[in-house]
Amino acid sequence: MWGVIPAAGRGSRMEEHHVDGCKELIEIADRSLLLRTVDELVAAGVTGIVVVTSPEKPALAEALADFDIADLEFVEQSEPRGIVDALRKAREVAGDVMLVASPDNLFIGHPCPSDELLAAHRLTGKTVIGAVQVKSPWGELLSDTGRIDALNPGASGELLITGICEKQKDRPFPMDGENWRCTGRMLLTSRFWEEPDGDDVQMLDSLAAEGELVAAPTAAADIDIGLPEGPADANCWANRGH
After folding, report:
1. Which residues pair with 194 in a beta bridge?
2. Predicted confidence band of residue 19 (pLDDT cuts 50, 70, 90)
3. Torsion sign (Cα): 234, 236, 239, 241
4. Is 57 helix (H, G, I), strand (E, B) or coil?
């Protein structure tokens, strides 16, 4: 199985923090988000890694020039057309089944969150989404995107996702009850590509309706580096010695 790192986005909210025009090269405790994501995928045992980049971000390839990976490929997304378009380009190299890790998310307290997705996939053979429970105070900074409708126990002990809620970027994430959020990790199977074309939420929600989408809860705090507060918060964590 190949790992895929979608890294073609502009990251306009984080522009003042960019390194060589790339939010993926922001460093947390002296290691860039890009390298941290590569480290995780290598630890998970992927066959190779596809980085989806853009013509405006040559620094990403330069940053990995000396990294010892048996199979490392770059594909370009010429225009920012969303995550599904980026994954379709990666699919030309990786095939239908892929472990997707976004460099926007930093997980605190777990050495390899991707292992949780692999375990859930081995149990069920289904598409898997990494999930974290949204808690205060970080939750108050999030918009209502990636929210999981509900988690239901499956026959084999898995957690089935009943649906993915529509993105509402102009609303805060609801903090009442046990709210779960998709966060930066997906293990896609061929069933994902059989769904009608749409954005990531529409395609995943369609899978959920068919009982084909599983959650892999990650017992770790999640910092969204895509938010302006993210790097400062992450470095505070790192400076505390974690």
Report:
1. none
2. confident
3. negative
4. coil
Question: Rounded to whole angstroms, how far apart are CA atoms 88 and 120?
Answer: 23
- What pLDDT sits at residue 15? 61
Mean pLDDT of the chain: 90
Return the amino acid letter for 229: E
Q: What is the rounded distance in angstroms from the CA atom of residue 29 to the CA atom of residue 52?
A: 25
Separation CA 117–CA 110 (nearest Å): 13
The residue length of the chain stands at: 242
Q: How many CA within 13 A on the CB side of residue 105?
A: 26
Mean pLDDT, to the nearest integer, of 73-99?
Answer: 95
Q: In whole angstroms, what separates CA 184 from the centre of its chain?
A: 2
Instruction: At 181, list the tokens.
Output: 């959020």
- Which is it for strands 159-161 and 127-133: parallel, antiparallel or unpaired? unpaired
